[in-house]
Amino acid sequence: xxxxxxxxxxxxxxxxxxxxxxxxxxxxxxxxxxxxxxxxxxxxxxxxxxxxxxxxxxxxxxxxxxxxxxxxxxxxxxxxxxxxxxxxxxxxxxxxxxxxxxxxxxxxxxxxxxxxxxxxxxxxxxxxxxxxxxxxxxxxxxxxxx
Length: 146
Description:
It is a single chain. The protein is mainly α. It has helices at 3-26, 30-63, 69-93, 96-128, 133-145. Helix 2 runs antiparallel to helix 3 (69-93) and helix 3 (69-93) packs antiparallel against helix 4. The protein is elongated, with a radius of gyration of 16 Å. The relative contact order is 0.16.
């Protein structure tokens, strides 16, 4: 399995959990929405950790710089953290309009962010980290298991 394959499947996994939270909020089932959102938020945190604690540092070490695409991705992660917090606030208030507005913003942002990673960063990682692929994926999976 390549880094691209592994991380793209992680994006899809997070997206499915997001859709379950959004559906529950649309239906006004706030208890289910909170449960699904907690799963989604945890999945996103794990995904960010896989990138920021394993993939990005390994990529930067080989590239000799942390100011390339990984820098941009980290900045975007920070923006997504803010949106995630805003969604939690809307959930706590059971405010469907606020929830949907913030969730739609996050969804658009995630789609653009994921496209950049899937079309540029992950293929670059596959190329420059090829000898370490198996070890990198194992280290990322270990973060999720812990």
